[in-house]
Write a structure and sequence with these properties.
The structure is a homotetramer of 301-residue chains. The first copy, chain A, has 301 residues and is of the alpha/beta class. Chain A folds into 2 domains: 163 residues, 3-Layer(aba) Sandwich (Rossmann fold); 107 residues, N-(1-d-carboxylethyl)-l-norvaline Dehydrogenase, domain 2 (Orthogonal Bundle), CATH 1.10.1040.10. The first copy, chain A, is built from 14 helices and 8 strands. In chain A, strands 3-2-1-4-5-6-7-8 form an 8-stranded mixed beta sheet, sandwiched between helices. In chain A, helix 2 links the parallel strand 2 and strand 3. In chain A, helix 9 packs across helix 13. The radius of gyration of chain A is 23 Å and the shape is globular. The mean pLDDT of chain A is 96. At the A-B interface, strand 7, strand 8, helix 9, helix 10 and helix 11 of A face strand 7, strand 8, helix 9, helix 10 and helix 11 of B.
């Protein structure tokens, strides 16, 4: 079928390619003209304006947005809406907060537009391996998009599903990322313990490779970790600084709002915050407290 | 080659079978005569005494112990030693504490015996899929056992390795299990959050299956979780009670001894402890504190 | 000076009394006629309508609201506003979210009303010992209220302060409660450990009393804990169920929004959530995972 | 009464002084001759050998050891024993592990010596305010020491007690310190959150002083914190590096051994470990994982 794709970054460009290879007509827009030119050169239709994007698609249109969450999504929708017709569908495939999604759906539906949310996992590997997609929205909006999901997914009926009403897709993706935080932190702690056990002189690369086969902790994340460790076994040249892009903290907020205790996902987030705290104030407060009651020496800067 | 196997439980019996299928001569002992009879019926040699086990093996012998950690390992070694000869090798394939392993190694070596530790992962699936094995010990003891490891492993050169001196195998397996705790807790928290989001009415079985393909959180553990959830999507009939068999707490102790902060593995253990605390005293203490300063009502039993 | 007081519950009634004893004229309103009658019987002016409350105060008026946070505060303000005059001051002394406070301040100021926030600590003991108060608001609104704060506080210039602009009082009180959660959890864990050490047969009441004098952990909270433990040393008859009234979770949200890692306050909140989870789903998920990979028995309900 | 005191450091010297002021004869030993000379100059008996210490005391003797836990305690006992007589008592007033205490008690008792453990809290403030003491040991050993405890304590019958058999004193002190960790971490997190809320421009010194009077979080630790903050409100010149001297980690080990979930005391310890991890390996591992699956940029050193 035909699909418009707005945002040809790391994720969007590869999705466009996977769709083209799957036989769909892809019309792709990005502010970056190099990206659209490259898309065209590969056989899709790269365009430089949203007007051209809409013109190149037959109604009822399906336009997939793959831009950073928050204002960029709202702005894209605002600019797109006047160009589109009732019955057209917008799919937000990015990492939006499900509450924003539900707000957007509530605003678009009365105007006659469909709004579908798709939590998309798979990162930079999706072009080759397919994307895991959790889709939320009204069935009449989601059903016509099946050919798109079937192509993007790892298998026609695998790795994707319509998980619920509007927002459900982004909600499930949010939790997915929360779990991802916990898994990453778990692996990282384990490797740190092994690295610290210097008398055993353990080879972290060897161990990561052993665990890839037959162990209980084998996973795709471990496969990637093993490869990355092999390239840089001591992690030299890296700073201990871990960003978070939003979904982890939303998962924590949601757990608390739902009165669900989720200590490990929460702590995984907190450790990321900690990684960005220079000359930690909390630790310095404890130093002065220890000094105040026990006369313990403080470490000077 | 020939190998003795002591302990034909869930793990040991299947390992014996995988070895037999791989062309090795297996002599298996267990106190349970049904298990030894079944082993014999499948084509290996089931015996009812350690004397018979030793007699049925040619020197230098390799005897693999697969019994619960702690006293059972010490007792097995004590009873085995008088029957064996210098140059024979004992392999502890169970979940022993690496410090016990190092102590046993230090005791056996001067007496002329080899002692090898093998952390074995794979659970009840190992017969079919192979076992992931982390081996510790002296090279002269480990090297002759390569045919055994190559057969038990998922692939000849995959899923196992000689990771270091005595104790290294059990140390790495211990950390492996610590990571396993964190992964399990991470998944479980995520599913709990989704279950609690009742307005979205999410289908946990569907979601676990989606994530198996293409998602960042895909793993073998998730595969098993998806299957188990499908059989009992509401987890009815289960009690919220989680045992721990030792390796998780050892990982926590070790992290602290090494001055490595490992909050997520630690919290995963703590939650297991919490699952077994009935009428939690800590919570009741907080209740009386709240009542004492704020007059907040306490909930009566 | 004169002051109106809306909400004569556990906190409000005692504050009214402390103000009366300090020489102020107090006009108190509550829906509960018993409370207003009792106030009158003690020498203050108890009234049954907001109209009467306002009428009994000279302009510019100061009206202190002591009602549950959220809608009750908004409703009280909405009903009060038409009765009051420009230049009058409303003080919110309850546990409101500082963001609500800032919103209310922003709405009231252009209408000519002052709005002051006062985080009030001290619980049911304030009548006797005085209240600790953290005040936020415009100086021209806060300054005329000094006589009120000086009377309510433990000492004229002790235990209270104008800590910043609108919202600052409630923000500081919110953090105060976060710290309170951590302290309570810390004490409760310590006593739980001692209780569990059965071979030492420790007397928790005795120990709490020892620590009250000279120890590093002495505190007012410990004083109250010691008294409460003495009355019920085994905490019999209590259920392990701990509510949370909002400020703890707001502190956690705020810490995350500010990118401050606050693991102990956060975990103290999470444990309260945990105390209210019956037949914990997370634990049951872990049980089925353990069963799935290792054949470990699950505990049936 | 007469008492020997070995170890005239920060704690020991002040205890000797408080005992002298209370009318006891104190014979004090330290390797540091300045300390013994100073003790003598104040009116006690400073000695430079253990022989002299023992000679200056009448049998049955009471000798209080105030040295670092571990080997120093064992060495002191070993050197003291040949000089003493059956019926003499050794008191370990330091921060020993209660398991060491029980081992020492079991070794000394059959030789006819008494061994008493005293967990001592109060830090550098004890001289003035008295020490909180938790005493363990056999009643026939503890009872004759009452005059000593009554003098050291904040009040004759306040702030100390015989809490149980050998080891009980050190056990309770260990838990006391665990609670102390949690309280310090709780306060420090709270102040960090307030400091980070830059739009409110909160004055941490002012707030700490407000909370000292009437608030629920008032405590001796807060008093000290307020004083320390006043001297250095920005904590300039300090490094975020927090040592731990043993009792916190023992509390964590003990909680786990007792199957008591104590997440907040545990996390308080873990944060101290974290404060000492430079260029945290765990965080760098997470960085390469994020890069590996999502192409997220890593921060270079």
């Amino acid at each position: 079928m035909e699909i418009g794709l707005i945002g040809l970054g790391k994720m969007g460009f590869n999705m466009a390619e996977r769709l083209r290879l799957g036989g769909h007509k892809v019309v792709g827009f990005d502010f970056n003209k190099e990206a659209t030119a490259r898309l065209t050169s590969l056989g899709s239709v790269g365009v430089d304006t949203l007007e051209d994007l809409v013109k190149n698609l037959s109604a009822p249109r399906a336009v997939w947005i793959m831009v950073p969450e928050g204002d960029p999504v709202d702005q894209t929708i605002a600019r797109l809406l006047p160009l589109m017709q009732q019955g057209d569908t917008i799919i937000d495939g990015g990492n939006s907060n499900y509450k924003d999604t539900q707000r957007r759906h509530a605003a678009l539906k009365p105007q006659g537009f469909h709004f579908v949310d798709c939590g998309t996992s798979g990162g930079i590997w999706g072009l080759k391996e397919g994307y895991s997609m959790m889709v939320g929205g009204d069935p009449e909006a989601v059903n016509p998009l099946f050919p798109i999901f079937e192509t993007l997914a790892p298998g026609k009926a695998e790795g994707w599903g319509h998980v619920g009403p509007s927002g459900a897709g982004h909600f499930v993706k949010m939790v997915h990322n929360g779990i991802e935080y916990a898994m990453m932190q778990g692996y990282a702690e384990g490797f740190s313990i092994m690295k610290a056990k210097t008398p055993l002189n353990l080879d972290l690369v060897q161990i990561s490779k052993i665990w890839q086969k037959g162990s209980v902790v084998r996973s795709w994340l471990l496969d990637l970790t093993a490869d990355a460790l092999e390239k840089n076994p001591t992690l030299d040249g890296l700073t201990a600084f871990v960003p978070d892009s939003g979904e982890g903290r939303w998962t924590v907020f949601e757990a608390i709002d739902l009165n669900v205790s989720a200590p490990v996902i929460t702590e995984s987030l907190i450790r990321r915050l900690r990684s960005r705290e220079d000359n930690n104030f909390t630790d310095r407060m404890i130093s002065i407290q220890r000094n105040a009651f026990g006369g313990h020496a403080v470490k000077k800067a």
